[in-house]
Automatic annotation (TrEMBL):
Signal peptide: none
One Pfam assignment: TUSC2
Single biological process term from Gene Ontology: regulation of mitochondrial membrane potential
Name of this protein: Tumor suppressor 2, mitochondrial calcium regulator a
Organism of derivation: Callorhinchus milii (Ghost shark)
A Gene Ontology term for the protein's cellular component: mitochondrion
Length: 62
């Protein structure tokens, strides 16, 4: 899976942190991507088995 757990236990593909700074006397916000302290979700067992997208066989029902 391409999903990660953060320090709080939340699960997502990407995590961002809002940071504030002052530019020309105005307070602005910026999103900073977090890439540290993330734990990969790993393999996920699905209810029904699925074939990978790149599987080189055409399946059809006759």
């Amino acid at each position: 899976s391409s999903m990660f757990f953060d320090e709080d236990g939340d699960l997502a593909h990407e995590f961002y942190e809002e940071t504030f700074f002052t530019k020309n006397g105005r307070k602005k916000a910026k999103l900073k991507r977090i890439s540290k302290n993330l734990i990969p979700q790993g393999m996920v067992k699905l209810d029904h088995p699925r074939i990978h997208v790149d599987f080189p066989v055409v399946l059809c029902e006759v």
